[in-house]
Amino acid sequence: MENNYSKSQLTFLVILRIFIGWHFLYEGMVKLLNPNWSASAYLMDSKGLFGQFFINMTTNPGLMKVVDFLNEWALVAIGLALILGCFARLASLGGILLLLLYTFSHPALIGVKYMMPMEGSYFLIDKNLVELAGLAALFVFPASRIIGIDLLLYKVLPASFRKFIL
Amino acid sequence: MEKEKDNTKKIARRDVVKSLATVPLLGAIAYGVIKTRKKALLSRDISDVFHISSTDAAYLQPKPDGKQIRLGVIGYGIRGKQLMRALGFADPQYIDTLIEAKKNNPDDTRLDAFREQDNLNVVVTGVCDIFDAYADAAIRACSNINREGTSGKMGTAPKRYRTFKEMIAADDIDAVVIAAPDHWHGTMAMEAAKKGKHVYCEKPLTWTVPETYLLHQTIKETGVVFQLGHQGRQTASYQKAAEIINNNLLGQVNLIEVCTNRNSPNGAWVYDIIEGSNPQTIDWKQFEGDEARIKEYNDYMKSAGLERYMGPDERSKFSLERFFRWRCWWDYSTGLSGDLLTHEYDAVNQIMKIGIPHSATSSGGVYFFKDGRTVPDVLQTTFEWPDRNLSMLYSATLASSRNRGKVFMGTDASMEVSDILKLVADMDSERYAKKIEQGIIPTDQPFFTYVPGQSKVDAVTSATELYFAQRGLLYTYVNGKRYDTTHLHMREWLECIRQGQTPSCNIDMAFQEAMTAHMGTRAYLEGRTMYWDSDKKEIVRG
Description:
Chain A has about 170 residues and is mainly alpha-helical.
């Protein structure tokens, strides 16, 4: 890939990637470090079309262990990958998937109230979706091969792996 | 930015710098994570000043080989219906409405909840109600042994008795459930006990003071298993509250506030007048009450100059209002004291074992429901226990649903008890001073929340759990199953009969409840403080 970005474009693409990565990593670490954290309360409060699906998940303690584990480590891995610019496009996709799940569980609908304290007012578009759009932008405007470990990976990895980076 | 056209594996120093440019940021985030971790670890540990077990509430468990108990039910009004449902018997027509409701809304779990309720291994062999429609409904409900709708297969219909005396004389009845109006409780319980029937009696225990002694003595002498209907005894959080008090986690408690808050005609005892009720279908003579009780009531009211609170109708005059809304008149009722204060008092007595208060002072009036009632709809009663350095304030209104909680105020923390339990540290606490200073224990929000069924007792509650708890979204579970407290309370009574044990709200607890309520009532009626003479065991005037 050629670097056709202007300096300021590149700067803000990298900043966007770092900010989102920072948020993911910290969210993941906080959950990881709290032995009592579980997504079950959040999921129990699910609303909207898919609400019942997430609520049903909480009734299975074995499944919740898996869900918690995956959520915690996915947040950490995606966060690290975005900050470092390491498999950043893959991480963007993963992040989009996670945020989609959160959105399906807690859609910003009119008249729907959630237990979690929420700052601001939202209709359809909440901060999860803004972050999701940010990740989508990063996916289509990748910069990790210019600033980030992907630059090295691109040079080091065999050609068949490059598609994961580009 | 320099363009890179060459994608060969040649790695320039510049590339390494660009590649690792963002790595130092990890250091910054690590700082945040380590600080958070430190705080999280610190926050967990308050065990040196806050000792509490992680055990859930304990209940008397049914034995698998228990014998079937044959019940008679006296009174099938609003509460009678609820009690029968708690035993597993509901009118098929009611089941039909639940089936319909579930059809319209799959989230309506009432039908499943009712059908999944444990089988208590009882059969209702007799029903007694002085209103024909209620008696017929009781027969329908108690025949419905398979918990079916109107199209279902019914069991043997119980016998209808016209008077409770005939019922308690029957040989095929082991125990009775009393859900008649207040002015009948004591008489029915006494007569049943004398016939050797075990008794589950709705609260309050008694309508007059003299019958309270008689009933207490009768239950003691006959040795029947007696349970008073304060189902709050089964509330898991009350057991935890008692543990908190015993462990002295609140410091010295000098003031307790309890309340009643309702804001609907139904909540103010203005119940529906049922179709088909008339002098032919209602046995008014029986409704009037037991002669001995009426005499006790009349004697007290007249001797204390309280004629203005009697009547105003003649007792013999048939009245649908008085039949269905009897709680509004002292002629049958025990007012807010007997109906609702008793629930609050019994909860506090369960938690702190306070016994009968030293004194009671009341005030209030009929301020909203000016419908001819003699019983107040706003009432404040203050009880004192000087030997315990304790005061309890009860405040009630039937025209506002503002909840003021059941709050135990201690020198180290205050505790609010409902279906859940919340502890807020006092900012001037000595016990928690160090933890408050360190920022481990907050003082502006609960630092401990107990939600029954949550196996983990988490010392510092997370925001999410707190939100759930505050909105009462988490239910009461026993061994993973959701329970209705009335069901558990009746189950305890039945198991005590089978296992020869004493129920939690036994006759001694009931005696304390009744005397406390009578003190509050008399203080209101007479407009002066009432005292308990603990030597003579009687209510005296100041």
